[in-house]
UniProtKB/TrEMBL annotation:
HAMAP family cross-referenced by the UniProt entry: FdhD
Keywords: Cytoplasm, Molybdenum cofactor biosynthesis
Species in which this protein is naturally found: Metapseudomonas resinovorans
Signal peptide: none
Keyword set includes Methyltransferase: no
Transmembrane parts of this sequence: none
Family: Belongs to the FdhD family.
Superkingdom assignment: Bacteria
Subcellular location: Cytoplasm
Protein's UniProt keywords contain Cytoplasm: yes
Protein name: Sulfur carrier protein FdhD
Amino acid sequence: MPSPDAKRHLTAVDNPTEPTGYQYAELDGEARVEDAALAEECALAISYNGISYAVMMVSPSALEDFVAGFSLSSAVVQSIDDIYDIQIEGEGIALHAEVDIGNRAFWSLKEQRRNLAGTTGCGLCGVEALEQALPELRSLDPAPLPPAEHFVDLRQRINEAQELARRSGALHAALFVDADGALRLCREDIGRHNALDKLIGALLRQGLDPRAGFAVVTSRCSLELIHKAVRAGLSTLVSLSAPTTLTVEWARRHHLNLIHLPHHSAPRVYSPAPQAKADIE
């Protein structure tokens, strides 16, 4: 395995790219032509130690964060320390990420190698086996729920943090609220899985404790997001839309706090399971 002192090139790319402007004509009989900012999209091919692994459709911002988070949440590596180098090459709509990983992680990758084809609307990208769709995950240590006051005006703060979405729309976001209730990180992408991967990568690369706060996703909370959150060691996942029954079951099974933040009512804690009414009385 490479020396832990080996040089790593994990330079943060936190500045989002500007949305591309496009002209459109309004369909109102006056044929007015206006400009609109649209979200950018590119194909990112990911290789580990020279072996092609996946092609993902992503937004071209914070790509090193995405690669780091994707590598962990897809179980290619078990720790950020398994990643020695990330190099992004190419331009325009075709980019390539070459990732240098340790020997142990690379051996495991070759053992379970599968082809993935990522799409912006995908669920479990390229997964062909039921065992891969419903993997064995190590349960988290139970953690306390965030204070209720950390949810005050959270939706408004999220909207303010989504710089790209305000200009172009069509973007999901994953955000991190720290132990003091401050919104520390925001990562945006056309893909909801990609946004969470970017956030996980940013947490790892900045040395932030994923359990000292909570993550928020603006998208539907699907099962694969639960997988990613558990693998990343997040203690709490908050979704702006209601979870499915399966996500609740998996969150409870793996001790991940799962909270839904509705538009006009108090946060709803689905995991851990609430006490039965008889127990409360």
